[in-house]
Structure formats: C-alpha cells, structure tokens
Design goal:
- With about 170 residues, this protein is of the alpha+beta class.
- The protein is globular, with a radius of gyration of 17 Å.
- The protein has three helices and ten strands.
- The longest helix has 13 residues.
- A hairpin with a 6-residue loop joins β4 and β5.
- The chain has a ten-stranded antiparallel sheet with strand order 6-5-4-3-2-1-10-9-7-8.
- The N terminus is likely disordered.
Amino acid sequence: MGSQRHMAVLLGTLMGVPAYACAEDCRQENALYGEPEAGFELSFKPVKSDAAATSHLFDISVPKTKVVLDGNVMVTDEVSRTEGVVFYNCPEGDVTGADIRACTVWEGVIYAVDDSGNVVLLPPEGADAAGQLLLPGFGLALRFSSAWGADKASVAPWDVFKLKGCANG
C-alpha cells in the first residue's frame, strides 16, 4: 500500500499535480483548501487549548482583499455533527448576542467528501485530511453578511473547497 501511494505521488508530480495534495500526507489540522471558482482559501490550524467545545479552527482568505474570516467547528452532542461557524470582524471582550449575530457570516454543518463521493463528517484532528469540504450555503450567506461590500468580499464562492496543500506538520 505504501509503495502504491508513493507511485501515485510520483506519477502525480510528473503530471503536474502537487504531491502535497494527497490527503494521506496531510492531517486535517494542517490542511489547506481552495475554492476553484472565486479563489477563496480555507486553512485549518491546530486547536491549542483543551476547550472541549472547539474541535477545529480555520481561516478563510477572501481573494484580492486583506479580509480574513475566522472559523471554528464544534461537534454537537445530541446528533453527532461538525457544526461550523464563520465570523468577520467580531468585537473582543464582553460582547452581546446581538454583537455575535452581527459578525456571523455563516453557520452550518461542514461536511467532508471522500474519494468515492460519499458525504461524511469532517475528520477529527490527527486524521487524514478530507479531499473536499462542503459548506452548504456559504457563498449565499457571505453575500448577505458584514464581510460583503467595498474593500471586502465582492465575489461569492461556491460551497465546495478542494484540498490543495498542507501546512507544516
């Protein structure tokens, strides 16, 4: 199996496919995804606290701007789901529910799509990175958020992000 993977990486490299785009070579907490239509990038980063509620942290870079959206994922208790929330320019410190609602860009389940096309939950930290992510309704929600407008997002992304790299790790 290992030699088959190495052969696939070698063939991919010869054909112009970056070797780092193989999910088996990247852990979820280091994965970098690209949205091919508008050029958005979603990058995961390791959770550096023992906060039980947060299972993943990520950023979404808006192309051709300096705008970076902050995201986190929590695994729900009642029904196991990987609930994601994306924020833009949230105030720090003592904030109200209205403050949080005003800076929330998107909320929903983040799904992974495996190599066979099966839709599954986002892999946990330490697991192989998903080949694709699905954030249902993200592009539409962005258009109606505080992150949309002059010097902000002006092109709505598609809801699918494809693995394109891996940060150190």
